[in-house]
Amino acid sequence: MAPTLARISLFAAAMVLAGTSFALAGTQATPVAQTSPPPPADFGAPPSGEIPILYNDRHVYANPDVLKQGRVLAALVRNGTLFIPLRSMFEQMGGTVSYDPASKTATVTKPGASVAVTVGKPEVVINGESRPLDVPPILYHGDVLVPVRVISETMGAYVQWVPDRHIVVVRYIPPTPPPTEAPPPPPAPPATMAPPPPPPATPKPLTLGGYLRSYYFTSQQASNNPGTQFNFASGAKYNSNAVNQASWNTAIALHGDYNFPGSGWDVGATYLYANPINGPCVVATAHFKGEPCVTQYPPNTNPFDSLPGYTMSTLYEAYLKYKDYGLDGALGNILFNSPWANPADSRLKPQAFQGGYLNYTTNSHWTFEAADMLTFECRVCSAFSRTTLLTSYPSGAPGLAPNIYVPGGVSIDTDGFTMGKVGYDDPNGLSVNGYFYGVYDLVNMWWGDFKYQFKAGNWAPYIALQGGTDSNAGQSYVGKVNSQVFGAQLGFNITPTLQFQAGYDTIPWKTDTVYLPKNVTCNNSNYQITATGATLGYVLPIDAAQCYTNASTGLTQIYYGGWASPYTDNTDSDPLFTTSTTQGQVDRRAPGTSEKVALIWQSTNLKWYFRATDAWYNYGNALAPENTNIWTALGTYHFGKVTSPTGPYHGLLLRDYYISRTLSNTFCGASATNCPPSSSIGSTYLGGLPLNKQNRAELEYDF
User: Fold this and answer.
1) What's the alpha-carbon Rg for the chain, to the nearest Å?
2) What ranges make up the beta strands (E) of 37-164?
3) Alpha-carbon torsion angle 530, 535, 537, 538, nearest 10
4) pTM score, two decimals?
5) What is the pLDDT of residue 48?
6) CA–CA dist 378, 381 (Å, integer)
7) Is 23's pLDDT higher than 90?
8) How far is CA 259 from CA 27, 191, 193, 199, in A?
């Protein structure tokens, strides 16, 4: 416990010292007010970073990025220039904003006025007249940001930087329409100076939100293939492979966040409760192996426990956060976003971690991040623990491999993981990131990704690369890991609303020749390892050939090389380009090659979203071929107004996901099998379901 307390204390001290030092670095600045025509802008010395806006005494609820739950960041300072989000500001002032992603041009219309800007082009067109800008508009987290003079020159707005409050104040009074018959002009009054605006209103520090989410999951397990048929004849042997699955469950999540005004500090929490209203099966223990709730006979169904089909109650967020002056950090029960440890939020609740992170983004677009996570709560769990997805038995997932023996069948505890990141994100389209994950007593992972967005008109093509290496570390509780991956992806717009993507990943096979430990055997008929009360220390592929024993020498060749991922295993949330819904190469823990294509369409009002994918996986090796195909179709409809494809949404949405997955060489006698001639019909070959169809329907209300 002492090392754990020390890790927590060091991280908390780092957050406090970082926040204090940056706060002391703030300087007073001269306010600026602009009228039409405006004098040269004088913003003093505002800090470089993200700045909240107070518009007519209230905060602006719009992108680019969520600063607090329900309170949204709206301004950005880069290299001494203050940028304002075009859409949120002009819509507040009564304008109508449209954006053409092909040309990256935003157009604002209002009775008697029109404004047009283009991302990367240092000019603004006001009522057809082009005027130069010192700096061009930029694209930040999906929103167009413009220099502040654009709103002052076009709308006559008042803008003021308030350094002691660390906010930007914007005031705008719409012009009064002229009367139908103008009265005689009164005598000109003597010139007077306009009174200063009133002080900004105090922002509300407490924000509340959450969601109500209901899912209905179904999975077709049975088919006409041998090994997944159910024999209804009297006395016939029970076949669990043939029992279909279905679960319905509903969850409510309540979130609260309190911001200490002017400090950058927040405290917050999120509580979730889910109940499937399913009699005695609402209890998680009723879903243990062998219990009646999970050993049904057709036409009944077993629960689909990757949802899950039982009650959950958890305070998965309870945090202290700091965000200001380029720093962003959190400590406590938190949601953490990174390639190999993330929320995987496609069920009732996201995955969460206990620990802390701190990152710093410089003015030159570099990001440095460090994280230390002590415990983990999976997306079907109601408590944090020291286990991982590879060292426990999570519902609806393989979990700890059968070739790793633990007395009593209990989970294996670890001390969490540390992560370091260095990244560069250029607004001109280049993004490069490097990561290191040290998962205690399991694996060390090095990972890198690259993406470049070309500026090529309507097509907007991009290319992305990824790669890394994964090796066992410390006690190596899950066995030997020696894996390398490389992937590439390209994409482009077919039309302004339709995008095409194609990806490729490869993980080479590895082999070792060993004498098997006592009580570990290799079946040369189906190339599978069986361990009875013993351990073979390798991460072995799932539903693929694993071994072959030379009868004359007694030596066994082990086939391995798959990527071991303790916090994304079987959540289809890893970063590989070819990972598909239900699984990918990492979820199968298998080497091989894979390809995936996708078509993505989103309506111009952002309410409709459709995605169709087709992925092919080759897990064959020198022992036996194995091919998997996964086809998916996703549709989403938002009933309310959507202001940004990546921003927060409040309202009702409906989503449906259909998946069809086929595997070769599963059960002898099934289609596309290569069993030895002596194999009996219906006997297991490489394993898995020859055909699996799933449907996931979701109704959600975000508030």
Assistant:
1) 29
2) 49-51, 53-55, 58-59, 65-68, 71-73, 75-78, 81-85, 96-100, 105-110, 113-118, 123-126, 129-132, 138-140, 143-147, 158-162
3) 20
4) 0.76
5) 53
6) 5
7) no
8) 22, 44, 37, 20
